[in-house]
Amino acid sequence: MASDTTRRLMLLRHAKSDWPDVPDHDRPLAKRGKHDAPLVGRWLRDHGYLPEVVVCSDARRTRQTWKLVARELGGSPAVRFDPRAYAASGLTLLYLASELPATCRSALLIGHNPGVSDLARSLVEPPEAGISFPTGAVAVLEFDGDWTGLAPGQARLLDFTTPASL
C-alpha cells in the first residue's frame, strides 16, 4: 500500500447459487459456486489482497461463499454477517463501508447484485460503466483517506477478476 492513509476495499459478489424452492435469503450455492469460491480465495491470497475485516450479507449463499473463500486466504479477519448487506443498494453498501474501523486498512465486502456492481461503478474514477459482476467476481479498489470519507469517484480500480478467468 502507498501510505498510512491508503485503504483497500474488495467487493465480492457471492458465488453461483442454486434455485431450489426456498426463500431467496436461504438459497444455497450451486455446484459451480462451490467450485468457484475457493478459486477466488486463492486469487485474493496469491495477489496479496488479504482483508483485515469482512462484512458479509447474512444470506446463506454469501455465508457459504465466505466460508469457502476464507479457507484459501489464511489468517483470521474479523467477520460481521450483516443483514443490511442482503439485497442492499450501492448506497447502503457504501454506508456499511463507512462504518469500518478507522484502524482497518483492508476490507472485503461480500454481497449481491445489483448493489455490488453499482457501488464499484460509482466509486471508481474514471467511472467504469462497463464493469460487470457475474457471480463470484471480485473488484479490488484503493483510495486515500478514511472509510467515513469514501464517496463516489474517489477510488482507483486496482484489480478485477471473475471465476471464468481463473
> In one word, what is the shape?
globular
First-last Cα distance:
24 Å
Helix content: 25-40%
Largest sheet: 6 strands, mixed
Number of helices: 4
Mean pLDDT: 94
CATH topology: Rossmann fold
Low-confidence stretches: none
List keywords for this structure.
single chain, about 170 residues, alpha/beta, Rossmann fold, six-stranded mixed beta sheet, globular
Structure explained in plain terms:
It is a single chain. The chain is of the alpha/beta class and 166 residues long. It has a single domain, classed as Rossmann fold. The chain has helices at residues 31-46, 60-73, 90-98, 115-123, and strands at 6-13, 53-57, 78-82, 106-111, 138-144, 156-161. It has a six-stranded mixed β-sheet, with helices on both faces. It is globular.
Sum this structure up briefly.
The chain has 166 residues and is α/β, with parallel strands linked by helices. 29% of the residues lie in helices and 22% in strands.
